[in-house]
Amino acid sequence: MHNSSKQSRVGIMDIGSNSIRLVIYENGSGMGFKVLKECRESARLSAIVTPEGVMPLESVSQIVPVLRQFAEVSRAYEVSEIRAVATAAIRNAVNGEQVIQYLNQETGLAIELLPGEMEGHYGFLGVVNRIDIRDGFIIDIGGGSTEITLFQERKRISSVSFPFGAVNMNVRFGGKQEGRWDEKAISGLETMVMKAANEHPWISQHPGLPMVGLGGTIRAIGKMHQRKRKYSMEQIHQYQLQAEDTDYYYQQLPSMTNEERKRIAGLSKNRTDIIVPGTIILRTLFRHMQCAHYVISGSGLRDGLYFEWERGKEHAVLDDVLEYEIESVLDSEPLPRQRHLRQVADLSVQLYQALGEGLDDPWNVKLLRTAALLHQVGMKVSYHDYEEHTRYLLTTRALAGLDHRETVLVAFIAIFGSKGKIKKRRISVEYADILHPNDEERIRRLGALLQLAASMDTSETQPVERMQAVRKGRDFELTIQCRTEASMEVVEITEAVKDLEKEWDVRVRLVVRTVSRS
Length: 518
Fold this sequence. Notes:
By secondary structure, the chain is α/β, with parallel strands linked by helices. It has helices at 57-60, 64-76, 88-92, 96-107, 116-128, 166-173, 183-198, 216-228, 243-252, 258-262, 275-289, 301-311, 321-331, 335-354, 362-374, 386-396, 404-417, 424-430, 439-455, 487-504, and strands at residues 8-15, 19-27, 33-42, 81-86, 112-113, 136-141, 146-152, 155-162, 211-214, 240-241, 294-296, 464-472, 475-482, 507-513.
């Protein structure tokens, strides 16, 4: 296992069939990681394979300068290790071993040829460590292969790798009449996919599970869908699609020319041809597996390789995705603030339970506690106006372990709970496509609790030793005992109580006992 007691960096290089990528990760001193740099070059290695399955070395030589430069980037970032893997295109080539030898010799790297099963495994690690999900199928459509993995109770049960992907199937079935696909080409590819899938009965024996999609195809479908419906969040990670959303693109895209596809909002120009075979593979497998819906994962193979590097093979699967994420955010805060945030989170949850409406709702507790621990995250950008920065950081960066609705809720509870008052209109209007009708009230009520809890530690010195809160009908008795005079807190608490009364429709009887200095 990698020693993560202090910060260190790793460069993960992924030589795929469609593109070559490098990600430089830095692990925190305690938990979590940061991505410091990402590089991507389009390679389309699947397209240079001869009909006999050979990958000519003179064609492979074109990627040598890219790999050399990626190695140089890694050195500039002073990584302690480079982990380079090659996937389907080279794996499925007849002369795959020779290609790897040639590349290692020319670049000085130690590239390993990843077996299909392991590609599925690392994709699985990347998914379950960034999405809070227990059971499902993972489908990873690359340029030259498609991996399917079944996982249950966050354990990988089965994986299979098929030698068809978006690039090599485009070479085989597409490319006629300016990129249009006819019925014959579509059904040819579908028949091939079904024939392969039928050889593995487990693929169709678990109907009703979500399908978590990795890779460029499903991300492209998600981006097109978000643009089409003018979705209010930029985030693609954890975006959900229904069966009919993908069906729509399956019906529309094949008959268009590449030029026409270039005009679709959200579709990148270098994917206008390979989006068709990718979509056909995705939809065919989704229907065969009878999945419930699609979930898009922005993390996969490279994140999986990182987690194994950081945590070792035995501990690569996280027990709690959200907890790991929160801890990694807190880890970079100064210690006094960490103590403050943990105190505020504890007090918030105590208040919530005392109000009596939340004993049966662990979901609200999760939202409130997460918002409490992260409500000052904007201070990383600037201490002044930190509420705006908090809102921006929480709504634009996917918090692992939260779906989109939870992300928006946490962001607004967080800023409602800090001093910045949000205008009512902004919440409901801006994210109307994500939030549910009663979420407005949820934000205001939980935000008021967070604000009161935060006011009990304004000085960030934890003067509150004990808090007792009891609700009787509309009366809420709140007794706070402090170990100092706590003058900063007393002022703030009195203010915050007014909001609590308004949002929860209670009458607060407040008693604050402080130790006087005589």
